[in-house]
Amino acid sequence: MWNFETDPAFQTELDWIEQFVTQEVEPLDHVLDSPFDVTNPLNVRLVRPLQEVVKARGLWACHLGPELGGQGYGQVKLALMNEIIGRSRFAPLVFGCQAPDSGNAEILAHYGTAVQKARFLQPLLNNDIVSCFSMTEPAGGADPTMFTTAAVRKGDGWVLNGEKWFASNARYASFIIVMAVTDPDAAPHRRMSMFIVPTDTPGYEIVRNVGVGSHAPTHAYLRFKDVRLGADAMLGGQGCAFEVAQVRLGGGRVHHAMRTVGKARQAFDMLCDRALARRTQGERLADKQMVQEKIADSWVELEQFRLLVLRTAWRIDKHKDYRLVRHDIAAVKAAMPKLLHDIASRALHLHGSLGLSNEMPFIGLVADSFLIGLADGPTEVHKITLAKQVLRGRTPSAGLFPDYHGPKLKADAREKFGLGLEAAAELEMVG
Ligand SMILES: Cc1cc2nc3c(=O)[nH]c(=O)nc-3n(C[C@H](O)[C@H](O)[C@H](O)COP(=O)(O)OP(=O)(O)OC[C@H]3O[C@@H](n4cnc5c(N)ncnc54)[C@H](O)[C@@H]3O)c2cc1C
Fold it and tell me: Got the DSSP string for 166-221?
């Protein structure tokens, strides 16, 4: 059964989210700096009351199951919510599902010990603290098997040394989840483990914070120098960092894609508005065929991408195992930068000089398209994953000419229908 409709009860919730985000949350984006600065008095004054409204409505942390205070809605409903939430910088915070905390909460819930959950997960779920996830190193992020940051056993604990790069929100974080080599001689994907490092641990240092474009510097260059960690600092088993990272990044990537639908739709709506409002040479931009092509292409690309995201969400709900939907997730991850880039660029261009100005959101949206093409791994790597998964299990033609070569198909068909040479000659004559 195929069904492209939202059930009426949930549609009521979506309608409520739409008007709440538009009226109450989007204005925050124009007066507050970082959503992660949770102790900033103005953030506390303006954000906390909205979080309470969301909690009372039963829409808090919907990516989590009921045992962690969420609704256990599943990914399809989450996708529909995230399309709205994705439009606003502050909405994920107001709805308790902001990255990277949402993914960090998932792995703490999945792999954390009772002590780790009490110390780190609960305050994170309440948004009393924020966290950071740190894999990338200055020498390269696309290939984690090259990482050198290492933890060495000392007594019953560990000593961590090394450097990390582009660790988002480290400056606001109470703890950082760090990927480090613990078993240098093991197979490439069993060499590393995850550690929880509280940011007040001696030896931990932010070398500097780096900004994206003209944005405030919130991505940290980190150094760990003889950082002593207890045995209880490890998250998941020894050598299991790749497994933990996959659980975290699988969900994270698809949630980014859901929010990207919202951002691309926002750019598309502005594109349409400008096409209708602006006149040149005695007619509306909307009456020019080259503008109509921009609108048509953008609509088709957005709807195609949205369906791919929703189907991926549906497959995650169905299989409940990210490993079985790896290729779907790789596909949406690889497709989303181009989608946002193309629609935001068209909207920018159609607004002329105003579109390029710092009074409009388009430069930010185009920069975001590059951001989502790098964060959680570059597009090329995800295309490689997708291609490998697609090719897995296929058997190639064995002969000199492929199995689908015309003469062979004809010969096979003649044999199937018992047609002799005479009938074959007739067939040749009709083409
Ligand atoms: C805004 C932002 C936030 C981020 N936040 C975090 C964070 O919180 N924590 C964290 O750990 N990391 C974070 N990152 C880092 C991100 O994960 C890395 O940027 C990404 O993995 C790529 O690593 P790199 O930047 O070192 O690029 P490199 O590994 O040097 O790759 C550079 C380029 O080389 C090409 N390339 C690489 N591999 C291949 C390949 N196999 N085939 C073909 N071409 C290839 C691609 O064009 C790629 O863009 C963030 C990045 C951004 C932009």
Answer: EEETGGG-SEEEEEEES-TTS-GGGSEEEEEEETTSTTEEEEEEE-STTS---EEE
Whether the CB of 130 sits within 6 Å of ligand 1: no
Domain harbouring 39, CATH code: 1.10.540.10
User: Using the 8-state DSSP alphabet, how is residue 402 labeled?
Assistant: -
Amino acid in the structure at residue 230? G
Residue ranges making up the domain that contains 412: 402-431
Q: Taking Cα atoms as reference points, which of 366, 162, 181 lies closest to residue 264?
A: 366
Give the H/E segment covering residue 134.
strand 131-134
Single pTM value for the model: 0.93
- Burial class for 189, CB neighbours closer than 10 Å (0-12, 13-18, 19+): middle
Number of folded domains that form the chain: 4
State how far the Cα of 73 lies from the Cα of 257, in Å rounded to an integer.
18
Assigned token pair, 187: 């197979």
Alpha-carbon span 138 to 156, nearest angstrom: 30
Let me know whether 205 and 308 are in one domain.
Answer: no
The distance of Cα 159 from the centroid of its chain, to the nearest Å, equals 32
Q: Is 236 in the pocket of ligand 1 (CB under 6 A)?
A: no
Are 165 and 221 spatial neighbours (Cβ–Cβ below 8 Å)?
yes
User: Do 229 and 277 sit in the same domain of this protein?
Assistant: no
Tell whether 1 is covered by a domain: no
Task: Please give the Cα distance from 94 to 238 (Å, whole number).
Answer: 35
Cα distance between residue 350 and residue 355, in whole Å: 7
Mean pLDDT by 10 residues, the chain (431 residues): 90 98 97 93 96 95 82 90 96 94 91 95 93 96 94 96 97 97 96 98 98 90 98 96 87 90 98 98 98 98 98 93 90 97 98 97 96 96 96 96 96 92 61 54
Opening angle at CA 389, ends 394 and 250, nearest 5: 160
Within a domain: 123:
no
- Kindly give the distance from the C-alpha atom of residue 379 to the centroid of ligand 1, in angstroms, as a whole number: 9
Distance CA 133, CA 414 (A): 62
CB atoms < 10 A from the CB of 120, how many? 22
Task: Kindly report the protein residue whose alpha carbon is nearest to atom 48 of ligand 1.
Answer: 378
Is the CB of 211 inside a 6 Å radius of any atom of ligand 1?
A: no
Ligand 1, atom 2, residue with closest C-alpha: 375
